[in-house]
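Incident log, support desk, overnight shift.

02:14 A customer reports that sequence design results differ from what the structure should imply. Their input is reproduced verbatim below. On-call engineer (initials T.W.) acknowledged and began investigating.
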């Protein structure tokens, strides 16, 4: 089975393709001729995932799945949430985002946070959504050089290391995206 993953983020494609069985092949947006930025103007993570999947299905006619992910920090009432990628500005710079978050949390004792991923799947005219959550905490400083985004400052529950200190396989087994992708795979197998 071949299916479009509605993202231009090569890190996400690599991470998700590693989790999928060899019988499912991801087709990139580039491969279908989609080079434009897909709108992400919704107010929730779920709505953004649905918006992106619908965009590809409606404009290009492909079955596809799209995800949206947000980091929700308890002490900040769920921020940056849907604005995680552009928390420090439209340039979408991970270092800037992490630096802003670390500065905002300076002196804050409650470091509890969670990553939330929603995958919206459009398949044969029907839509299905899958949600994965990884609970953890925001560290005091950046540690590790694996992964992407906020990985160097997120320590998952039950671990003494950040996501950025885990291999793709280790992270995939416990991450928000991994959990949502497992649900997607189980659905596609049926």
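02:41 Re-run completed on a clean worker. Output:
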């Amino acid at each position: 089975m071949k299916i479009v993953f509605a993202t231009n983020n090569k890190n996400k494609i690599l991470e998700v393709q590693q989790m999928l069985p060899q019988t499912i092949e991801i087709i990139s947006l580039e491969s279908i001729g989609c080079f434009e930025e897909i709108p992400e103007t919704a107010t929730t993570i779920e709505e953004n995932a649905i918006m992106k999947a619908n965009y590809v299905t409606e404009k290009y006619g492909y079955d596809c799945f799209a995800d949206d992910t947000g980091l929700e920090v308890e002490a900040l009432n769920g921020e940056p949430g849907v604005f995680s990628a552009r928390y420090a500005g439209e340039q979408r710079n991970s270092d800037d985002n992490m630096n802003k978050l670390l500065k905002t949390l300076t002196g804050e004792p409650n470091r509890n946070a969670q990553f939330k991923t929603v995958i919206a799947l459009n398949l044969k005219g029907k839509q299905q959504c899958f949600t994965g959550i990884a609970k953890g905490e925001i560290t005091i400083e950046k540690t590790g050089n694996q992964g992407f985004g906020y990985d160097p400052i997120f320590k998952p529950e039950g671990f003494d290391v950040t996501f950025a200190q885990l291999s793709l396989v280790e992270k995939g087994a416990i991450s928000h995206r991994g959990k949502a992708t497992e649900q997607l795979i189980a659905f596609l197998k049926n």
